[in-house]
Amino acid sequence: MVPGATENAGSIFMLRRWPYGCCATPPARSCRRSNDLPAPLRPRLSAPRQQSPSTAPGSYEDIGNVEADILCRLGLRPGMSVVDLGCGSGRLSSALTKQLGGSIEYLGIDVVQDLLDYAAPRAAPNYRFVLNAELRFPAPEQSADFVTAFSVFTHLHAHETFAYLVDARRILRPGGTIVFSYLTLPQHWRMLVNDLRGRVRGTLPHLIAYLQPRTIRRWARELGMHFEDCHADMEHRVAVLKNI
Ligand SMILES: C[S@@+](CC[C@H](N)C(=O)[O-])C[C@H]1O[C@@H](n2cnc3c(N)ncnc32)[C@H](O)[C@@H]1O
Fold this sequence. Notes:
The protein is of the alpha/beta class. It has a domain at about 60-190 and about 210-244: 3-Layer(aba) Sandwich (Rossmann fold). The protein has seven helices and seven strands; from the N terminus they run H-H-E-H-E-H-E-E-H-E-H-H-E-E. Strands 3-2-1-4-5-7-6 form a seven-stranded mixed sheet. Helix 2 (about 60-75) crosses helix 3 (about 90-100). The structure holds S-adenosylmethionine (SAM). S-adenosylmethionine binds near residues 43, 87, 110, 112 and 151.
């Protein structure tokens, strides 16, 4: 578990079959720090409840491997560069370290320093981790082959998500790819029902955001990109945006 993490009522979202049940427990210390952020950027989610590298379904390692496999299937190769928005405690970076070692460039970005501190020692030494509270990537133009956001836009307002996509387009190299997971209705109806229960009980610590594929398609058009759903082995849907 991330140092300072505590159990909290957010575990209502740790649905039994939800392999993405990671964000229910903000580390107490980080939360205090993140309260200094402007409201739209405060993390509405945070550290994995269970950070143990167990092999149980939905574990830190399993989910990291699924995320890394998606990128490899989409063409991630040695020499390429990945920018990982909301990298959290490093599920993706630790899986990429196992699969590709230091052969790629990796930049993990998060709004919670404790999570970055947890992720960094579990990643290849050349991987970089940066605290960032802007709706903008701390990366130069055309510097990334992949921009990822796994289980991040599921907790942001649509305008924030679109702002990140616009800026992701800026940092993408020609031929680059944006990959992000999302929840949609009615497919994730069960989560919506639990979300509503949490709101009624006052136990919901963060926003759960749903997107419709038609919204993403429209955004992709605005960005001059092509949108496809990627058939991933996870309960979230995974959107892939490629330069046209
Ligand atoms: C559910 S966790 C997912 C972590 C990681 N992507 C994974 O798949 O394990 C969401 C992460 O997004 C981070 N986050 C939330 N809002 C953010 C923002 N505006 N910019 C960067 N990170 C953010 C949270 O601190 C948290 O670490």
